[in-house]
Amino acid sequence: MNIQSQEIQSKAIKYTIEEEGNIVGRISLFFIVNDLHDEPYGLIEDVFVDDTQRGKGIGTKLIQHVIDEAKKHGCRKLIAQSRYGKNGIHLLYERLGFTDHGKNFRMDFLQ
């Protein structure tokens, strides 16, 4: 039994919010394709809001923008991951319509 490989092209878009020339928030939307569905799915990564800017709606604005972009690009679903203990972002995701769908597992290769 041999394992065959085929490269699959995916893309990502990074969105930022700047204030006075400084990035105060960012988020990346990855479009992932596979053979199981005709439509891609979206994956949210690299969500960041500067500590001094939290509570001003920047995270909400970024996530809502990515939701809209995922719909515009025909994604069949959108996944947002977050670590345990990040209750603020968990509540934000739920407020914006995400549901807690389970666990994800990770293996780090670089420290």
Protein described:
The protein has 111 residues and is an alpha+beta fold. It has helices at residues 58-72, 87-95, and strands at 11-19, 22-32, 41-49, 78-80. It has one domain: Aminopeptidase, CATH 3.40.630.30. A four-stranded mixed β-sheet has the order 1-2-3-4, with helices on one face. It contains two helices and four strands.
Name of the CATH superfamily: Gcn5-related N-acetyltransferase (GNAT)
- Specify the biggest β-sheet: 4 strands, mixed
Number of domains: 1
Instruction: Give the terminus-to-terminus CA distance.
Output: 34 Å
Number of helices: 2
Helix content: 10-25%
Highlighted features:
111 residues; 22% helix; alpha+beta; four-stranded mixed sheet
List the helices and strands and how they pair.
Blueprint: E1 11-19, E2 22-32, E3 41-49, H1 58-72, E4 78-80, H2 87-95
Summarize the structure.
With 111 residues, the chain is an alpha+beta fold. It has 2 helices and 4 strands. 22% of the residues lie in helices and 29% in strands.
